[in-house]
Fold this sequence. Notes:
It is built from eleven helices and no strands. Helix content is 70%, strand content 0%. The chain is an all-alpha fold and 215 residues long. Helix 4 crosses helix 5 and helix 5 runs parallel beside helix 7.
Amino acid sequence: xRAGCREKSERRFAADTGSAEVCGSPMGEAALQGLLSERTFxxxxxxxxxxxxxxxxxEVLYGLITERAEALPRAVRxxxxxxxxxxxERIFFETPELFEPCIxxxxxxxxxxxxNEGMKRxxxxxxARLLIDYRPEDTLLERVAETAIRWAVEPRAKVAVRVxxxxxLLRCRGRVTWLGEIExxxxxxxxxxxxxxxxxxxxRRWWREFGVERR
Length: 215
């Protein structure tokens, strides 16, 4: 990505938001906000992810979408949240070691507090992968499981959000003691008025992998 494009994004973002200053670092927050708020381009996530990685700005991106974007004007906030989460997802799966400084905050605060539906899908997918290798302390894992249950049984939630929430709960089996006591009730709630995609997953995998017999 050319530096001139990034500088243009900085200037336009500063004008749109009334920001008086533009960060002059290789990938400062103003530059990142500008890139995420403007029109996308071919291989957008790949190019921006590479720029963020090369500039050592993964934590800047993480802090932007989990904290500071909420203070931005509504016109740009939604684009920054979803696109930023999409870029973070790519970094997480391609270079997971760069996400390690964010793991505790992700489990402790930002996964449970996430309210954006587009980000929930991405965060659920990330959490399901993270829990394969990572073992949070018990209190954190219980909070993750409680959050995933809420997402899984919310009938108005997007299908992908519910699917990844159940996948998170599968990773919690055997590690969150009380989860085994509610698995039957949980799956019945998930299956109530389920979409075709969720119903298919329940038939093919979830009943069996949760070790619950269908009534």
